[in-house]
Fold this sequence. Notes:
By secondary structure, the chain is an alpha+beta fold. Helix content is 34%, strand content 27%. It has three domains: 2-36; 40-93, no CATH class; 107-239, Lipoxygenase-1. It has helices at residues 5-36, 40-78, 81-93; strands at 107-113, 123-133, 136-145, 155-160, 167-176, 181-189, 192-193, 200-202, 226-227, 234-239. The strands form two sheets. Strands 1, 4, 6, 7 and 9 form a five-stranded antiparallel beta sheet that branches. Helix 2 runs antiparallel to helix 3 (81-93). The structure holds calcium ion (CA). Calcium ion is lined by residues 183-184, 216-217, 219, 221-222, 224-225.
Amino acid sequence: MGELNPPSHMRNISRLIPCLMTVCLVCEHSGAQTALAEPAELTKTRAVYQQQIKMATDPIKQKYVEYLEGLKKTYGAKGFLDAALAIQTEIDSLGIVTATPIGAKSDKIIIWNQNNGGKGDRGSKKVNVMLFAGGREVWSKKGIRLQWDADKQVQDEILVPALHVDKIRVEVTELVNDKGGLAEVEYIKGGKNAALGGAVVVSGYWETNPKHAAATLTDGLPETFWLLNDKQEGWAEITLKAGQ
Ligand SMILES: [Ca+2]
């Protein structure tokens, strides 16, 4: 009897094949019909349904985004940049527009170089930039090449992640004619310069001449400039205005 089983199975399978093919054809056919002739009521009701889902879920997403923003700041302040950026990616993926810009590159630093008031014998070629929050470094970029022109004053923009920052440090590492300096450092956040009028501490300034002291970096005037002593690299630390 066992010898008869295989042909019997084969017969069953061959009977099934046309049936399966018919089912497939029907499926395909009915699918095409639905796509071509969707009733207006369905389109309309689906739009209402999707709108209701959006209205119901947006407040939940909003709350989640608020939580993530707080978490991002906590990690940023502790110096865990990778964690902060991972949280930013999660926020971006939710597609929620919040009141405050959350774009990872919405903030920027603008560094105005100087040429010794048009004399063209002093300036800076390269800088390192560090961002701090609560005394910890949260972001840095090293070896940034600055534009410099002997006749006209030029500036560079450096895009930075939208993290909570309270202090920035600029290190001048390469000089023009061994005589460095900068005219102004701006920290643009939400369209405003958070460095304007901020307290500045510098490694030193040219012949302790007050005309070229630390405060010239945040006075909002590109024509006033900080000069380093000859043949010396140096740094400036700027405390951003509170509440920025
Ligand atoms: Ca200035």
